[in-house]
Design goal:
Elements lengths: L3 H20 L4 H6 L24 H4 L6 E6 L2 E7 L6 H11 L4 E7 L6 H14 L4 E7 L2 E7 L5 H12 L5 E7 L8 H14 L16 H13 L5 E6 L6 H21 L7 E5 L12 H7 L1 E6 L2
Parallel strand pairs: 2-3, 5-6, 7-8
Antiparallel strand pairs: 1-2, 1-4, 4-5, 7-9
Helix pairs in contact: 4-5, 5-6, 7-8, 8-9
Length: 308
Amino acid sequence: MLAAGAGTAALVFYAAQSVEDRIGTDLSPAIASTPQRLSPTEDEPNLVTGSIPEPADAAATQPPGPVLRLSRSGDTIRIAGAVGDTSSLADFRAAAREAFPTAGLEASLRGDPALGSDIAQAGLAAVAALARLAEGEALIEEGVLALEGRALYPQTQQAVRERLASLAPTGWRIDLAVEEPATIETSAAICEGRLAAALASAPIVFAVASARLADETQEHIDQLAAILEDCEDVSVEIGGHTDSDGPEATNVRISQSRAEAVREALLARGVDPDRVAAVGYGDARPVAPNDTDENKALNRRIEIVVQR
């Protein structure tokens, strides 16, 4: 058996002899002088392989990404990015929890001393705006807050724009794109349904034996005020109700005081006072027999009814 080098030379010589027979020329000197290398020598440059590297300053030419990203999808709220110093992180998470009390929160936040307080302020404004949408995303970079999403009800975009204008840092640009339903006007039935759903998921709670709103109820009042802001052409009646314990006159007085407390809380959030009435019904309109503690708890309630 021939070695690899000898086999190669033999094949080349055989091919050359075949040519010599045809042209009558001795090709041996030419064959002997033919280079037998298949790879470059040290004196020759190697072939370039792989990708061509970018210039050292290419990264500097890329546009910066958002400093903060917030999104709402279904029952999940996601927040990622940087917000000023680390002392603001707890406040930021608390605000998100307040705006979305029943949603799951996925937060990946870090403190960046290079960022001013404007980023956190813009982030909090975005949280408030996303609370008005069925789903959406906000991207924040220095001087710009961009928000897009989908609303369940008409006239939401204008309400969101006004909300952002009042909460975002002064001088910031706001880019807003909200998809709204085709309905021209918000119907009274839709507004009443939204108010009823909000109260069912988060009933108004008072301190024991008083008309003072419990601390945990403040965020629920925020939600009611936001709904009334969307339903700007609708007037409502806030009805206070009690169980049958105690004198009738006392129950009427307590229910009236509690209804007025809710009204004042809504007015403090910018709701037009001409659109909101407060009435105390005492125990005159129970929704269940006052025969058990559970039923009595059902009868102690606040209702908001759209006036037609």
